[in-house]
Amino acid sequence: MTAKIHIIAGATASGKSAIALERAQKTGGVIINADSQQLFRDLPILTARPTPEEEALVPHKLYGMLNADESPSVGKWLRFAKMEIDWARSNGQVPIVVGGTGLYIKALMEGIAEIPEIDALVRRQSDNDYAAMGKDAFMERLRAVDPQFFERLRVYDRQRLLRAYEVWLGTGKSLSWWQAREVKPAYSMDNFAIEIISLPREVLYARCDKRFEKMIEMGAVEEVRELIVSCQLPVTGIAKIIGVREIIDYIQGNSSLEAATLKAQQMTRNFAKRQMTWFRNQLS
Description:
The protein is α/β, with parallel strands linked by helices. It has three domains: 126 residues, Rossmann fold (3-Layer(aba) Sandwich), CATH 3.40.50; 60 residues, Histone, subunit A; 70 residues, Helix Hairpins. It contains 13 helices and five strands. The chain has a five-stranded parallel sheet with strand order 3-2-4-1-5, with helices on both faces. Helix 5 packs across helix 8, helix 6 crosses helix 8 and helix 12 packs antiparallel against helix 13.
């Protein structure tokens, strides 16, 4: 009998990784990462990646895949996740998907529109067009080729606009056209065993605060400092990780370490609250 695909999901600092590790040790499982921040190769402390010692206990997949200047994508993650799940099942191992990036888990269970990879040169051209035209003119040009995109959009942020534009520029068809195509999940729902980790809010928030303090003790400041030297932070992808900009402010003398810590802790609690709401509404 083919092994179920186990999903362990929940908010940041809820203890998902520890539960997954214990489960994998008992079942002979393979842990597959579904946390967009832990896809990055750098900042293992600040992203709360499993330690080398933990990774040595059972197979861990899809950790540390991206360079600092790359951006995670649902489609890319899903392709690799399916490969790892199928490989594990074909070898009699239990795939355990663990993480807090809800869109990844939803895509695994429900499928997503298949959009071709966009070449880096096209993405660069999109950036150049945005800079040359300005936001308003850029939006009008995009509206002319993908009016349906604006019917769904509520927040006109740069990242969403660039994504829609680069898909049109790179494929000749609008993002809405691709998203309207039939979506076929890779697995039927009876393949999944789902566990949502839910803690009382005050307990979760306390864990968020304590974990960031521990990150500082473990050397989070030093790893951000090293990354600044190696790739001239901030960059698009990894700079969005909670704590990076706050620690940079401290390193540059614009903030005390205490103030940076308090701000990062507040942002972590806000993020955990959004995650809890998403899982409650989408997967409960």
